[in-house]
Amino acid sequence: MAMSRIIFTRDEILNIRDSTPSDLCPNFLASPVDLQDLLTSARISNGCVSVLRIYDRDSLVRIKESMEGLFDTRGRYKQAFPPPFIIDPDSPEYLLLCRAPGKVRRKSRKRGSRSGVQVKRRRAAARLGPAIFGHGERVRCLYRIPLLNVCDSTSTLPSAWTTMTVLEPTQRWSSGQRLSSPPRSSVFTPVPARSSRSPRDRCLRPIPLRSADTASVTSSTLHIGLLNARSIANKSFSLNDLFTREKLDLMCLSETWQREEEFIHLNELCPAGCSAVGKPRPCRRGGGLAVVYKDSCTCKVTQTQEYTSFESQMVRVGSSNPFYCVSIYRPPGPAAVFLKDFSDFLTSIISLESVLILGDFNLHVDDSSSCSAKELLSLTEAFNFEQHVSEPTHQKGHILDLVFTLGLDISNVSVQDVHLSDHCFVLFDLHFSPEPKPLEVRSQRRVISANTADSFSAMFDPLLFMDCLDVDNFMHCFTKQCVKILDQVAPVKSNLSIQKKVCPWTNEVTLSLKRLCRKTERLWKATNLEVHRLYLRDLVSSYNEMVENARSDYIRQLVTVNKKNPKVLFDTINSLVCSAAPVTPVFCEADSNTLLRFFTDKIKMIKEKIPPLLCGTPAVIEPVSSLWSSFKSVTLTDISALVTKMKPSSCSSDVLPCRLFVKVFDVIGPWVTKMVNLSLSTGVFPSTFKHAIVEPLLKKTGLDPTVLSNFRPISKLPLLSKILEKVVSEQLSLFLDQGNIHETFQSGFRKLHSTETALLKVSSDIMMSADSGKCTVLVLLDLSSAFDTVDHQILLRRLRDEVGLSGSVLHWFSSYLSGRSFSVTVNQIRSESADLLCGVPQGSVLGPVLFLLYLIPLGKIIQGFPDVSYHMFADDIQLYCSFKPTELQRLSSLVQCLVEIKHWLSDNTLQLNEDKTETLVIAPDDSIPGINQYLGDLGQSVKPSLRNLGVVFDKDMSLVQHCKQLTKSCFFQLRNISKLRKMVSQNDLELITHAFVSSRLDYCNSLFSCLNKKELSRLQLVQNSAARVLTRTNRRTHITPILKALHWLPVSSRINFKILVLTFRALHGQAPPYISDLIQPYTPTRALRSVDQNLLTLPHTRFRTRGDRSFQAVAPRLWNDLLLSLRSMESIDSFKKQLKTYLFAHAFA
């Protein structure tokens, strides 16, 4: 085998000869070669084509610097060292151009800005061509390849050698010879040269040199920025552009000056595919921190201890190999206090290995006379933190913004003046282990055009499934034909889900101004003139204002175009003023399967915690008065009416998209009707409708998406399934109403029932008990995943024995509950399928109705305790017991009732969540301790106030605490609405005001009759402020003409309006029976003229602040004050219209 040699140029070997001993490189060559032989070996050929290896200039300089320390003053080598690279005998020959240490080359004469570099390149090419390939040959294209270190593991190389690069010819020489080269891959793709003047190096590109032990180490780079923004309100779009322009992955902002629960400006500064988390200053104005990050960076807010001398926000970045990013803002104040608190903070995070601390410290670390700055640097150094900022970050020339790292590698630290505040922008790169990239998911959808419906209708052939007598076979043929037609008229298109990077309101005007800003910035950096800096600052401010106006115009046009679609309006408003939901970290099918297992394991754990049968008091089963054994057939008109009333909602498992389904219903309607009747007559629920798609959503905005318990499963079912269930639901409700089977005090999922009617009944009972001198104990029970733990066999027995279902109806419900499954879909990634062995179907029409029927025996058990009253809203159960202060023994009945409820729930596979059980004692303060002694275990759950179906009850039933929270919530919404005035018209703004403010004032406002004048004035102030925001009037303008012009009833009149409407409904059978029982028509004992006046009986009350404020007393008083013409009306719509006119005239008389 021919021996490969390392070949040097003659001049370099002569320089090496005198300074290098004979044993300098014992293993450098394949076999020892004398230096004299090396002189004559300028060109060696062993039968194969030579491959050129040339070091670039930067690598040669690093070799020189690293080798100078290895020679003594006489040029002799001090110690033996391993060779930088061992040449394998099978490898081709190499030419290493290495300069001898200490030799200084004469500086070339400059001929223009780049002539020196080009002269050197041409001279080297002219010399190398004849030396290697003879005269007439020259190098056309070279590219750099890495040299791999194959030394033994004990050898140590100089640090500069691990970053060297070489140059290699890419394809061919001028003579057409083809060279042996390493195997091609995407890594070796030629790139344009650094200069376009010389054709010799147009395919040169740098490749970093890696040693064997570092070649396998991979790292990623995060581009991070730091800025003291001094309010993000007036520069949010400029910050958005800065994030995009600098291609940042993470940006930390201090002094955001944002308020609690204010998200509009955070949403504005987030580019597409990014999110932001903010931490406003809790107590006073100013301050505040925020972190903007790309969604590809998994960020999680971590709670830290609060300190008075500085603000901090810690974010955990990454999942597999995370580091912690801590934003700091220190406001002016005593430095000694800050240093003590900061020392405590560093001590609290001492267990973390990788930490990045950055922010505005307001200490002049560049001032050698600053003792506080010295102590800060000494403190961080003691904790092994390294400070990286060395340039002034403030306009006055001091270093205030600092970057500290522990266990992290950062580089390219720079400071730029971006003209957004008096602080400069700090940029740097952070190197860390890369995170797993999300799976590229291709979304599949059908493009529905204007002609799709007509084409589908023309190709639809019902003869293919006309004779199907089995509902599953019918659905199979129907689905098969629909899919076949859709594949022709609207084929499935697959494309990658790529986030749009350009804002929809970007136009040519904003782009041109943006280009002008960049041009002026380059001019200022070139001239460094103050006039250019001031001009750039004005342009940046103008750009932010222009983008804001462009966005306002876009949103105004969007709302105008979709004027008949309120969903677009509210979705747009929510995207502006509400916090964006964090991205769920689901990147592959395994992640979706993890969520699937969590939901299934959660139900299994609940079922395992339920104790065995406790044999509580069995509920009395009354014989059913009637049986229901068969369904009624439906007509096309019935199905068409259902389709018209149903909300348009689609599911990925739908045969036809909802929009297309409505358009072609005239063609497929008869066959949908046949499918429904076929299912009802055979008692079989189609199996294709039994699979649900679960899309998890966070329970509240701001919750951590990495905690699986923070998700609520939202189940979606096919549209045809909902149509079939709606038909059954209407027939079932009719049967339940005729048989009076419904639970009287159950207000959930029932027509004419609501949370307001439920709370009105409970509060009225409590107020009347308090008027008679009684105390009341209210207990709120919470069930754990009650809908998901329903036992199917128990439910079917209950439908048969207590409801009266039989025959094909009972068989249909049995088929409906059996064989169900679900899968989880997140980020268009679907999990495996899992069986549903228990629970009523979530997201269905019949699921809530079946759950109410499942709880029917519970009401009968509670009725066995005469001293205990109750009310239920779905799975929310309320128990309350009223008693005289001298009759505390009656509380034993409440405790025993609770025990029986626990037994019944366990026997029916339901679990009571005792941790969420809350108790409220409504009694004088001196009586509460004695009452608590009789409550037993319930005494631990007693609270001064509790939230009951959205309304805060307190121990006095004054609703003062609820009024305070309501006022705070409304003013927060008004602040957001005030920032939308430029974006929408006044009519749309009024619609938004009613949706976000008036709806809150009107929620359960029939209970507000117990509010005193002070609290009513607070609510009236909210309405007045809403009117001023809408009409843009100042606070000194008289409010009464404004409310009258808007035709808004005052708050007190709105309360009376709601009470009177409920009274009208109760008198005309349009309210729940328990509301109708609270009022009694007036019947005189003898014939009087008031017999035909439609008056109500006023109950006897003792206290104005108790009984007089209950619905039972307020409703008759307000009703009797109405005009006879109003009391005599029969239509609810006419009554509402005339009542508002009447109240409006009295309010503004």
From TrEMBL:
Region annotation Disordered: where it falls in the sequence: 172-202
MF (Gene Ontology): catalytic activity
PROSITE patterns: RT_POL
Biased composition (Polar residues): 172-188
Annotated InterPro entries: DNA/RNA_pol_sf, Endo/exonu/phosph_ase_sf, Endo/exonuclease/phosphatase, RT_dom
Ranges where the Reverse transcriptase domain occurs: 678-953
Domain of life: Eukaryota
SUPFAM superfamilies in UniProt: DNA/RNA polymerases, DNase I-like
Protein name: Reverse transcriptase domain-containing protein
Taxon lineage: Eukaryota, Metazoa, Chordata, Craniata, Vertebrata
